[in-house]
Amino acid sequence: MKKAKEKKSNAIWSVILGVLSIAYMYPIVMILFNSLKAERAISTNTAFKLPTAETFAGLANYVNAINSQGFLKSLGYSLLITVTSVAAILLFCAMCSWYITRVKTKISNGIYLLFAFSMVVPFQMVMFTLSQTADMLSLNKPWNIWIIYLGFGAGLAVFMFAGFMKSIPLEVEEASMIDGCNPLQTFFMIVMPMLKPTMVSVGILEAMWVWNDYLLPTLVLDIKKYRTIPMLIQYFRGSYGRVEMGPMMACIMLTVIPIVIIYLAGQKHIIKGVAAGAVKG
To answer: In this structure, are 204 and 260 located in the same domain?
Structure first.
């Protein structure tokens, strides 16, 4: 009787979650369909219909998106910002978390609480002062904006890394030091390889955030010189303010596809890393 109730409950939840998944996927599917249509079909009543022989434009919108508005340059800026920011977050936050978990003092506990507190502070509270500070310190270029992303991404990364490191036996590190390793060698040769599941999880989550971020680069970067992919999307405008919907839809798909592939490839690691960083210890 109990198993029958559990099966019925699981079936109900499966249906509910399936419907929610379809609802969440619907906008992306519509963007994909419209990215394959001619411009006139998107702005009419056929926008929510499948492409037909009359409305199908093939890959013309994608070619248009790549060849116009400096797409490749924006792609390069997005890649540069994402790679440098994620690399900095992984390295510095892992080292900081190791210090916090191994040097147990009031100062280290206070630092950990500050990192945890940073996750609940809304970005809108600091965005205006952030813009001014970034201009003062010349942190308004694609090659040094990673410093700002490091500050905003450190909260989640330190929380997950510290949670996992609490489960690592201290005896492993003590044995390496007895063998002659200094602290840096112990961290890079012993601790970091053990952090691989959490590293992958944090890396994918932070990469998704940085790649798709629109507000922070818009506030900090000079939009006339540097445009990331999310910033570029709003510039698909023709004469008299007319929006080029076809190329815009294609640009959105080109932005979404890489990060979706990365997420699907690493979703198992994300689940393992989140469980290891949030449950253990």
So the answer is: yes
- Helix (H/G/I), strand (E/B), else coil: 261: helix
Closest by alpha carbon to 83, among 262, 221, 271?
A: 262
Same-domain pairing of 200 and 121: yes
> What tokens appear for 195 in the block?
């952090």
**What's the token pair of residue 273?**
């890393």
Counted domains in the chain? 2
Are 256 and 184 members of one domain?
A: yes
- Assess contact for 257 and 212: CB atoms under 8 A: no
Please name the residue that has the structure tokens 């601790």. 191
Domain holding 244, by residue range, is: 68-278
For helices 106-118 and 146-165, the axis angle rounded to 10 degrees is 120
Distances (CA, A) of 260 to 24, 182, 263: 14, 40, 5
Task: Encode the chain (281 residues) as per-residue pLDDT tens digits.
Answer: 567 777 777 788 888 988 888 888 888 888 888 888 887 777 766 667 777 777 787 788 888 888 877 888 999 999 999 999 999 999 999 999 999 988 888 888 898 888 988 888 888 888 888 888 888 888 889 999 999 999 899 998 998 898 888 888 888 888 888 888 888 888 888 888 888 888 888 998 899 899 999 989 988 988 888 889 888 887 776 544 567 778 888 888 888 888 888 878 777 766 665 555 444 44
Closest CA to 248 of 53, 47, 108, 82: 47
**pTM score, whole prediction:** 0.84
Output the six-digit token pair for 125. 């509270």
In angstroms, the CA 209 to CA 183 distance is 32
CB of 220 within 8 A of CB of 145? yes
